[in-house]
Task: structure prediction
Amino acid sequence: MISFLSSYQSLADQILIYSVLAMSQCLVMRAGLFSLAPTAFAGIGAYTMAVLTTAHGVNPVLAIVCGVMLATLVAAAMALATSRLRGVFQAVATLALVQVMVTVGLGWESVTRGALGINGIPKVATTGWLLLVVALATWLLWTIGRYSIGRAFDLIREDETVAVSLGISVMRYHRFAMILSGLLGGLAGALYAANSHAIQPSEFGFSMIVAGLTMAVLGGHKSVWGALLGAAILISLPELFRVFAEYRSVFQGVLLMLVIIFLPNGIVDSLLELAHERKVRRALPSGDGGNIDTKARAT
Amino acid sequence: MTMAFASVLELRGVSRKFGGVPAVDGVNLSARAGTITGLIGPNGAGKTTVVNMVAGLLRLTEGQVLLDGTDVSRAEAAELAHAGVARTFQNIRLVPGATVLDNILAGFHRHEAAGFWPNVLGLRSARAEASAFRAEAERLLERFRMTQFAQHLAGNLSYGHQRRIEMMRALALRPKLLLLDEPVAGMNDVEAASLGEIFKEIAADNVAVLLIEHNIRLVSSICSYLYVLSSGRLISEGQPDAVLRDKTVIEAYLGA
Amino acid sequence: MLLQQLLNGVVVGSVYAIFALGFTLLFGVNNILNMAHGSVFMWGAFAGLAAVTYFGPSFPLAVVVGMLAGGLLSVLLDIVAFRPLRRRKGADMSALLSSLGANLVLLSLAQNLSNTKVMRYPFGIFPIVNFQVFGLRIQLLQLVIPLICIVMVAALVFLLYRTGLGRRIRSVAFSESTSRLLGINSEWVNAQVFFMSGALAGLAGVLIGIAFNSVHYHMGEPFLLKAFVVIILGGLGSIPGALVAGVVIGTIETLTISYVSSAAADGITFAVLFLIILIRPTGLFGKASTVMRVQRQ
Result:
């Protein structure tokens, strides 16, 4: 599963880097976009950065920016291509993108060095810089979700028919979510490359998809802190279970299932909802405005 | 048939067939601004099908839908919303995990002018717009006597309250045509009457209201004109008193 | 030479078809993508292997045990990972995520239990009989596999369209709530569908384990990915689609591997997937999809 706990990376760095990936995933989930593409974007960001620095001597920071830009461009292409799709088809199309990227990584040996991967990537993404980047990314996610865009996402996810009948262009919002997820995913990948000295194509495949989804589900996709908490839990878990090291993946799988079944909104969102309800209930005057109805839950 | 002055909504010979079977057959209907027009009929008569055709969710097999004289028979739902058509649904469709206020604010989407990037970056124009919408939402909450529920999660409120939230969301759009699909279903007479008063206020604001309902008492008290649909066809139309005494209408309801 | 590769393609494609059949069955009835299907396939292969290791090499035994194990595992999966989510809103996404978790569990357990070793079916598990026809060298196994595939498809079609169970399954596929109103025990129907799906996966696992002489904890993943291409090409939920598309994909893949390269084969397979999704997402025989955007119907 996550085999990146090499001596080159500290736990904190890992959590920060993965939280950006989780943010990318949370974003698309919030918009009701069934996309598994963040992993593909991470692969693009990572490899672009790695190739530019190791094979062409490009300045590492510039290389990171290039990685992010390329990932964003690919995301834009995906956004256009998949804007008429929904649900299952989005999932499969984005899964296909991930696989295509892995195949390119393995096959385009002249550039990517194939299955052996790329070594000797300068480590410029140190903890201080990572903190800054994560703070910026968190702010971006927060400000986007704050007003109408966040509300539109929530409505599209909850009930597309209603969204459309209020004049919301689902296509436009899905495209935006996809492109932004490309930016964040590419950033996560480029930072990963800039922190871990070496990368391989197999790291940006199925297992990263599962990791990204697990973090997003664990934390919750509405609050901006969900991604961070999800990443923190997922990365720290193997450390806590050192004794059962071999069964790490089993625990991760079980955790994912438990969270989906019992806490589908994720930990942070569920806690926030609870806190919100308590606060509101305390402020409520007795009586409810004169109407006595049978209580019912919205479907 | 139609009145001398122009209607906001006009249906001309509207039909919808599902594989040869007509669910709606040759309906002619109009709704004028400032009035509440009722569309009633036994279950399965095709009323919701009519609403869905007007609202852009179903294709017409025949006929035209005109909005202020413009043919919108093929317009998609989002376009219609931007043209000022708002609707409510038979089932409650809110975002249960969002606050009442946020649910209502979603309805202002049509009026958002601040632009994408100002919203993303939180610039002043976006914030000013957000405050303006919030103020208007709060006025709506007052009108519907739900001010104290602004921050409640919509999913936790009672059925009656949820219906009102849906109404407020539809009004946030500032529609010129409001399609209400069984808005007082499941409510007692007192509540239905109080919502009825609000419908009259809405209509008085120069909105054309098309009301689909089963509650005959409500319909007869607030509608200025009625259409009766049975098995997809209009079997009667006119002033409520006359229509409700029409033998064919009574038979349709009893026979259904 | 070309004919030989075509034959190989048909053989591989038949197994893809069997595997995809199980996958598409679940989608057709429950609208879920079972991401753990590949692990069921792998466990079926191991179960068959364990059986012949204990009881001696016997092809029918391996097949039966593989199918049984796959079926039961699949039912267990339903109970643990899918059933709790069925009545929920947004069940599709949740089911997919839950099955991803289950997949991880099954995968790692297999990894640990097998010590990541590549195991093999005993030599002679299937009689090695070769034929020479028109200059082609055909093994008996290469004839038997497509035959099994056809039998399975026929059996499934017969079951679905000529038996009471089939009617109940189609009813649940159409609408679970309506079926329950009609007195159909939808949970029992679901369990049987999951069993059949898993049995098909287990069968495919045993066949591949024998045909390629290797059973490995990671053997399921490439199959699952290919299954996606097959069911999208064939049409989600379509049985003839899974058959036709399975063979088509198997053939394209085999030809690409022998004439270009194996890396290219993967790339081409997924490029095909892309094209289909963009041009005709419902595939060759697609079922009317519920996952289209909101527009005038």
User: Anything to note?
Assistant: Chain C has one domain: 2-218. Chain C is about 75% helix and 5% strand. Chain C touches chain B at residues 294-297 (CB under 8 Å). The mean pLDDT of chain C is 88.
